């Protein structure tokens, strides 16, 4: 059984539709140590809920799958990148990324307000005040409840990213 995660992105920076167009994308630029550690725990085949943050309204837009486990984030070595880290080196990288691919666009956006009403999401970092992590684990129950709320009844095993 795969692990389950939530990935947050501002849709005007990178949306679920952008992921669909790209087909596969590195999840890079994460510069929070706890979120980085979660990225390092991700394995190929894990499933992710794709969340649009700082949107009107914020909410879940789709599902993705990890298609490449954690490896060094290349942006940390690029002096032209806003994510450049001069204290990082190829021999001792500080930051990691994974590659993800889209597997399911939700039939509708599941707004944060609706997620807060789902009992399975009451203890989630997403629904707690002050939570700012862009990557964190979700439970299988949270995964199923979110998909059920938008009318999707597929078991996780049926969600497979393109090769």
Relative helix content = 10-25%
Estimated radius of gyration: 15 Å
Mean residue pLDDT: 92
- The SS-based structural class is alpha+beta
What portion of residues belong to β-strands? Answer: 25-35%
Major sheet, described briefly?
6 strands, mixed
Give the N-terminus to C-terminus distance in angstroms: 19 Å
Count the DSSP helices.
Answer: 4
Biggest sheet, strands in spatial order?
2-5-4-3-1-6
- Identify the overall geometry: globular
- Contiguous low-pLDDT stretches (5 residues minimum) are none
Structural overview:
With 163 residues, this protein is α+β, with helices and mostly antiparallel strands. The radius of gyration is 15 Å and the shape is globular. The protein is built from 4 helices and 6 strands, in the order βαβαβββαβα.
Furnish the topology, listing elements before pairings.
Elements: E1 4-9, H1 16-22, E2 25-27, H2 33-41, E3 47-52, E4 59-72, E5 96-111, H3 112-117, E6 135-138, H4 140-149
Parallel strand pairs: 1-3
Antiparallel strand pairs: 1-6, 2-5, 3-4, 4-5
Features:
single chain; 163 residues; alpha+beta; six-stranded mixed beta sheet; 4 helices; 6 strands; 20% helix; globular
Give a summary of the structure in a few sentences.
This protein is of the alpha+beta class and 163 residues long. Helix content is 20%, strand content 30%.
């Amino acid at each position: 059984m795969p692990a389950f995660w939530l990935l947050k992105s501002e849709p005007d920076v990178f949306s679920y539709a952008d992921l669909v167009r790209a087909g596969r994308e590195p999840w890079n630029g994460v510069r929070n140590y706890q979120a980085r550690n979660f990225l390092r725990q991700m394995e190929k085949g894990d499933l992710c809920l794709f969340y649009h943050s700082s949107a009107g309204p914020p909410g879940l837009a789709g599902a993705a799958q990890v298609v490449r486990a954690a490896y060094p984030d290349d942006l940390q070595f690029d002096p032209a990148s806003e994510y450049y880290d001069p204290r990082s080196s190829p021999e001792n990288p500080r930051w990691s990324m994974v590659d993800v691919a889209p597997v399911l666009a939700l039939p509708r956006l599941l707004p944060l307000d609706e997620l807060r009403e789902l009992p399975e999401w009451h203890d989630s970092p997403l629904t707690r005040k002050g939570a700012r992590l862009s990557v964190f684990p979700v439970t299988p129950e949270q995964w199923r409840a979110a998909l059920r709320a938008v009318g999707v009844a597929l078991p996780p095993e049926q969600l497979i990213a393109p090769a």
